[in-house]
Amino acid sequence: MIMKKFSLLLLILTLPISSLLADPITDSYQLEAKRDYAKALDLLENLSKENPGDYFLQLRTGWVALLKGDYTKSSSYYQKATLIEPNAIEPRLGSIRANLALGQHKQVEVICKTVLKQDSKNYFARSTLAYSYYVMANFKEAEKYYESIVDDYPADTEMLIGLGWSHLKQGKKAKAKEVFAFLTKIIPNEERVSSGAYYANN
Q1: Residues of the domain holding 156
Q2: Where would one find the signal peptide in this protein (predicted)?
C-alpha cells in the first residue's frame, strides 16, 4: 500500500509542470500565437459547449473562428455572446468583421447602426458602414459617413479616399477634385488617389 502511494507520488512529481497546470484557455492563446487556429478553435468550441452561458468563451471562440477563416461560425459565436451581454459592443464589432468577410453588407449595415446607437462616434462602425454603403452603391450614405469621420480625423487618408470616390460616383467633380488635390500632396503614389484625381479633372 505504501509502495503504491509512493509510486503515485513519484509519477506526479515527474510529470511536466505544464501538464499539472493545464489550462485550456491559456492553451488556446498559445495555439493562436503559433497560428494553429484549427486546434485552438476545437479546444474553445468544446469549452463553449460545456459553458453556454459564459460570455468570454463565446466571444473568444468567435475571435478564433474569425482568425481561422470560418466566418459563419465566428458570426454565430459572436451572436451568442451578444445574447449573453446585450449591451456589450465588442461582440457586435466581431460580428461586423465576420459578416463583412462573408460579404453580407446589409447585415453589416444593421449591426453598425446598432453599435452607433450606443456609441455614435465609434470609428470602426462608421468606417465599415461607409465602406458597405459604397460597395452597395449607396454613394450618398457612404459620403455622409465618410464625411463624419473626416470631420473628426481630417488627415485620415483612407477615409478621404473613400470620400473622394463617393463624390465622384455622384458626379460631384468639384468636391472630388478638392479632396484628391489634398491627397495628391501627401500620398501622390497611391493608385486610388492618382486615378481619382484624373477622373475628377477630366
Answers
A1: 122-201
A2: 1-22
Is there a domain that residue 3 lies in?
A: no
- Return contacts of 172-180, CB within 8 angstroms, 24+ apart: 173/199, 173/200, 173/201, 176/200, 177/201
| Residues 36, 95 within the same domain | yes
Q: How many domains does the chain have?
A: 2
Q: Reduced to 3 states, what is the DSSP secondary structure of residue 185?
A: helix
Closest C-alpha to 108, from 83, 138, 84, 147: 138
| Average pLDDT of span 152-173 | 98
CA triple 79-114-156, angle to 5 deg: 110
| pLDDT score at 23 | 86
Non-local (6+) Cβ contacts of 146 within 8 A are 130, 159, 160, 162, 163, 166
Q: What is the CATH number of the domain that holds 37?
A: 1.25.40.10
Burial of 88 (0-12, 13-18, 19+ CB in 10 A): middle
**pTM of the full predicted structure?**
0.86
